[in-house]
Design a protein that fits this description.
192 residues; alpha/beta; Rossmann fold; two-stranded antiparallel sheet
């Protein structure tokens, strides 16, 4: 069983989540690679080499990364035939306003719907405010968004909101599905 976690990251939190998922899967015995589409050519990605695929994208300005959308469209047939997972990373998921949380969930669902992609597992995780990595304009914009949603607004500090227990649980659940599928395939092969 070989798996890959394909992700798109801006300031690094989606990468941290992707690598945590891959680590959980590896520790459970599933050989897992990671692939950052923001640093590597998506056209070189050989999805057909893997038995399972997890995809993750940050959500910025109500949009998921178009390179993740491209991966889904380009490998639609392969993804439909293997176990898949998708996670979205945004600050909206931890807003003190229910409307913002619902919108973050809806945007993830809408992205998947637009790609005609129905992953086996799906999750939304909170990201981080990396004020130290933002330029002047983005820092002001993110401060305004944070203030509106009830998050931290001191721009001289960074804030991490990711629920690592939820990330571990998501990766563990997906891994259990993979190991179960492998066990079923082995039992089927032995029975023939």
């Amino acid at each position: 069983m070989r798996a890959i976690v394909i992700y798109a990251t801006c300031e690094g939190q989606t990468e941290r989540i992707a690598k945590r998922c891959a680590d959980v899967m590896r520790r459970a015995g599933v050989a897992t690679d990671t692939y950052d589409v923001t640093r590597n050519d998506v056209a070189e990605l050989a999805v057909e080499s893997f038995d399972a695929v997890m995809l993750g994208s940050s959500l910025h300005y109500a949009e998921h990364d178009p390179r993740i959308a491209w991966c889904i469209r380009e490998h639609r047939q392969q993804l439909a035939s293997i176990p898949t997972a998708f996670f979205s990373v945004s600050l909206g998921i931890i807003s003190e306003h229910a409307k913002d949380r619902a919108e973050a969930e809806w945007l993830a669902d809408e992205f998947l719907h637009d790609q005609s992609f129905n992953p086996t597992r799906r999750a939304c995780f909170a990201g981080a405010l990396r004020y130290s990595k933002y330029g002047w304009l983005k820092k002001r914009l993110m401060r305004w968004i944070a203030e509106k949603s009830g998050s931290k607004t001191v721009t001289t500090q960074d804030y991490e909101y990711t629920d690592w227990n939820a990330v571990n649980a998501f990766a563990t659940d997906f891994t259990a599905l993979l190991i179960g599928n492998t066990t079923e395939r082995l039992q089927s092969t032995l029975a023939s």
